[in-house]
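[09:14] KT: can someone run the structure on this one? pasting the chain below
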Amino acid sequence: MDLSENYNGQPPPTPLVPMRFVEVLDRTFRIYRENFVTVIILAAAVTIPITLLGTVIREYQPDITTTSNNYSYSSSYSSSYQNEVFAWWGILILVMLLNFFLQGVLLNGIVTYIASESHLGRKITIAEAFSAAKSRLGVLALALFVFGIIVGGLALVVTFTGIMCFIPLLFMPAVLYFGLLIYFFIFPVMMLERVGVFQGINRSIALGKIKFWRVLGFFFSLWLISLIISIAFEVLVILAVGTTSYQTNPWYIVLNTIMSAFVAPILPIGFTVMYYDIRVRFEGLDFAFMLTKTQSSPRPADVISPRPMSGLLTSQDVLNIVVLTGGSIAIGLVLFIGMMLLVWAMFSGAGSL
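[09:31] RB: done, structure tokens below
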């Protein structure tokens, strides 16, 4: 279905032009509105089963306090409880893996493809998106796994070595920096381009470097908007179900799941739009599309993905890491001082009473 129907029979405005920051945000939520039913059905189909499974698992979580009180009375009880704990952790790991595939791969991957088609003026269904993009889901899953191993492994090494010696902790901002570079564009790169796992990760890093602070600001803008929506929705839910044990209230769980489905598509749609903006600005994607002779309606997979022009670590990267480190320290100090002032105010108020 062509989106020209939404513009009174006229062609939609071309999306392959550089956009201002506000225009990227506007385009993100325009695509969200135009594909609202599609992405909400997909998000609900993913988030509802995971939420229900998580609720059931929490309900059957073994009680450590009860075990410690009964451990000395019965060795058979202890053995039975250990089996129960192992079984619970096994199920939890399986649910986490299922969540990784359903939300991290299926939801974000398919929403990214739907957003890309909508950005290019084509509106498609979930079935059409899955049929066109299913060959890329396995590559995306493998890329996310490698991403988790690299960034998560480095973070664990830095953290544990930092316990014994403070110096390794100084490398944490660098781990965070490269983690963000990969995360920003890993979904559009892996889903929309014909690249392998490691080439796709390198592409994600290269695109993230081009306008790191702009993309980081965009990420925080979307995160803040999502947070405000979530908080407002949760306040309404608490008022509706009551404040007493509201987290165990079935209506709270249902409504909170619905809220998660509303918020989940925002980030993948936003980074798909930003992906196009970066590629049009700095890689000439619009001209590459015009030169493509094999397709009347080209997509990023129909053009050659440029190779990174710079090395893994440049002087600009070092500067970005230094600024990121300074900003993190400043934010940490502000939060710490704020907490200290809050505690002081609470104790001062209690003392005056």
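[09:33] KT: thanks! Confidence is low (pLDDT under 50) at residues 1-13.
[09:34] RB: yep, looked fine to me
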